[in-house]
Amino acid sequence: MTIAQDALQLPHLNYGALAPMLILFGAAAVGVLIEAFVPRRSRYALQLVLGLGALVAALIVVITESGTRELTAGAAIALDGPALFLQGSLAALGIVALLLIAERTLEPGGPFVAAAAVTAGTEEDRTQAAREDAGTEVYPLLLFALGGMMLFVSANDLLTMFVALEVFSLPLYLMCGLARRRRLLSQESAMKYFLLGSFASAFFLFGIAMLYGFSGQISFAGIHSAIQTSTQSTTLLYIGLALVALGLLFKAAAAPFHVWIPDVYQGAPTPITAFMSACTKVAAFGALIRVLYVAFQGTDWDFRPVIGAIAVLTMLVGSILSVTQTDIKRLLAYSSIANAGYILVGVLGLSKDGLSSTLFYLVTYGFTVIAAFGVVTLVRDADGEATHLSRWAGLGRRSPLYAGLFTFLMLAFAGIPLTSGFTGKFAVFAAAIGGGQSWLVVFGVVSSMILAFPYLRVVVMMWLSEPGESTPTVSIPGALTSATLAIGGLATLVLGVVPAPLLDLTNHAAQFIR
Amino acid sequence: MSGYLGSYATLGLLIVVGALVFVGAFSANRLLSPSAPNPAPDKYRNYECGLDPVGGDWAQAQIRYYLYAFLYVLFAVESVFLFPWAVIYDRPEFGASAVVEMGIFVAVLALGLLYAWRKRVLRWT
Amino acid sequence: MSHSILAAAAGQMGTGEKVFFWIFGPLALIGAIGMVWARNAVHSALFLVLTMLSLGVFYVLQAGPFIGMVQIIVYTGAIMMLFLFVLMLVGRDSSDALIETLRGQRTAAILIGLGFAGLVCTAIARAMGSVSAKGLDAANQANGGNVQGIAALLFTKYVFAFEVTSALLITAAVGAMILAHVERRRENRLSQVDLMKARFAPGNYPGPKPGPGVYATSDSVATPALLPDGTFADRSVSKILPTRELSGAESAPKGTER
């Protein structure tokens, strides 16, 4: 039996460049150990220190490795400019979101339920809601999710990308269902997210199979070269591209696949909503842009009109439906959908500018949206957060500071100059015009104008109404939420006034390797 | 019997023998047993005396069965990955690294078992 | 025989493969139809098990023993059993709702189903015509076997994805335990002294309860005992049992005296 046994060789692993992911996964595993062995009292402090330490360490490693440009782990992982930039942004946004998640002074025990398995609405549930302890599993889950996101934006083949997609989705599904208040709503949102997310994953997987059928490869470089050289029918290629893009656009909250967003954003605990709206967007667009720019370069003329139409639909659906919203979390959810449309406009620049402006927009939007949800956690009455818009009337008189901050964030969302929202929108629209996609920019500007209306309505409501009997109080935030709000607000301001350093950084990073 | 399907012949033979034993045992029972059924009308009731069956035959299962089934799925997946590992780990090119790789994989999953043990999931009370 | 297997890879079927295909093909089809047809969710799941087992055999036949065994061990053995437990948990009867919650759902489902069937038929027709099957033999030979080939990919090229899979599995495990397991708190656990105090507390009857009634016509546990004054003793029957009244047929001799 003479079988040609290829020498099996372990691939070279660049541990330094992989370290951010390894740190996060390792810390998450330690977090599970803490859950198992450390007494309940001391878990919170330990988990918080561990999570913050791991994220800061990951961020530092990303910065020190920022010069790396290589394929590692058998070409399964590409650590190039965009990957490292997105990993760094994920770590930074993760730190800010973690601060918000760990806040415990706003209500006794924090926003997470102590025992999620207790049936909602029972006697036992009421006693545990009154108790001051809370589950701390959310910290290792957060680290797993962030590790998966980092792998997602640096995956260089579809299989690794799929595993990463599942690794970061599963903790998100779980975290959505762990709210302390309004538990049925929270569980419903987790269930919806899980079911629709599994469908999206299934479509993604099916698309991988189709692309494998077309090219015989699942690496992006292999698919790219198959597109250049293959003489086969391209039916499988287009089916595969459509299905893979569907899976990614679902996570990115683009329009026909956006229906889960409002319910999930509303039902999930607000800090988790903040985390999802910032970090999931970064991860989803990071992966989408890699798939489109690296694997499908050369089929631009085929996918551009379709994804362009999706971008237009996303912007219009997000902006028009946000006008009718009466709940602040749903309003922010629809605004997040519209922002997904703007980012898609940048992606469709299909150039170095398109890439760098997308990276820039993702970071600016992430910081602003976390701060906005941070303010939402402060407006409370006896039943928890008061999210109905009518309750926000007159809030400017109750607490000028936080109403002022929220006004500033709303103006940033609306794209007023001197905020990061303006520079971000300007960058993506400029990139789209540079890529010859002016029609997208027309729709972008129109939808921005529509979207300004609901933002300004909130602002007018807060400042020009008298506070009534039912106007909730604005809680004084603890140190952690204060830090979140300060970082988010400062980032929004600084990136609006002096965007040049970050723009330079994104320009420097905007080069994929294949 | 050589070749790809031939290697499954042993398995097929085992299944056939198993079926034969089963059929044989029941046939023997049938042949040897006396065939004089008790004609009493209530002979085939569930309980000849005692409690009448009330309601359906379905009862809601405890959720802890679900947890056990779930842990079983996890370790089934793990064992599936152990098969390919077992055929190559001793190749000279790999050295200790293949063992370490699998060690990490199993250790992370063992963490789940550890968690279950500490949370008293494994205790049946 | 080995050359006939090589022929199978090139598009022709060997005798053994044919025999197995015509045994398991109809079984898989019966399972699939039965799964949709069965009114009882548990029966549906069992039909699905039949289909999955047959598919596992097909994979083995088509030179993929590893995926075949995974199909049987993981999908049929573990995941379907998990599925059965979930059905038992949710309730076997709750699946019978035949009301359309979305208007036109049934029509849309039929149309989409027909479309999908058309798509699959086109694909099969194309595959029967122009495409020549590649088979797995070359891939299986390269590393000395199917399982070895999978191992070679798993532990070299995809080693990082493989390791990350463990993170996925542990997240799933921890998540299942968070959502399904109520940890008993220490302060809720009663000591023996507490239990004793509760037993002798005023208002509780510390002695054993009386047994059920034993009569000539019935010794059911559902028949209450009689108190000295001739009334029923409620405490003698468990609360979850319906009180049993004997019908005339039941109190008649049962025919066991013969």
Can I get a quick summary?
Chain A is mainly alpha-helical and 514 residues long. In chain A, 72% of the residues lie in helices and 3% in strands. At the B-C interface, helix 1, helix 3 and helix 4 of B face helix 1, helix 4, helix 7 and helix 8 of C.
What descriptive keywords fit this protein?
A: 514 residues, mainly alpha, two-stranded antiparallel ribbon, 5 strands, disordered N terminus, B: 125 residues, Methane Monooxygenase Hydroxylase, Chain G, domain 1, 4 helices
Full CATH superfamily name of chain B: NADH:ubiquinone/plastoquinone oxidoreductase, chain 3
Total strands of chain C: the figure is 2
> What's the main sheet of chain B like?
none
Total strand segments of chain B: 0
CATH superfamily of the largest domain in chain C: NADH-ubiquinone/plastoquinone oxidoreductase chain 6, subunit NuoJ
Describe this structure in words.
- The complex is a heterotrimer of chains A (514), B (125) and C (258).
- Chain A has 514 residues and is mainly alpha-helical.
- Chain A has 20 helices and five strands.
- In chain A, the strands form two sheets. In chain A, strands 4-3-5 form a three-stranded antiparallel beta sheet. Chain A has a two-stranded antiparallel ribbon with strand order 1-2.
- In chain A, strand 1 and strand 2 (77-79) form a beta hairpin.
- In chain A, 58% of the residues are buried.
- The model of chain A is unreliable at 1-5 (pLDDT under 50).
- Chain B starts with a helix and ends in a 7-residue tail after the last helix.
- Chain C has three domains: 14-93, Four Helix Bundle (Hemerythrin (Met), subunit A); 108-183, no CATH class; 209-242, no CATH class.
- Chain C has helices at 2-9, 15-37, 41-61, 65-90, 105-129, 137-142, 146-157, 159-180, 192-200, 248-251, and strands at 225-226, 232-233.
- Classes of the chains: A mainly alpha (514), B mainly alpha (125), C mainly alpha (258).
- Chains B and C meet through helix 1, helix 3 and helix 4 of B and helix 1, helix 4, helix 7 and helix 8 of C.
- Chain B: It is a multi-pass membrane protein.
- Chain B: NDH-1 shuttles electrons from NADH, via FMN and iron-sulfur (Fe-S) centers, to quinones in the respiratory chain.
- Chain B: This is NADH-quinone oxidoreductase subunit.
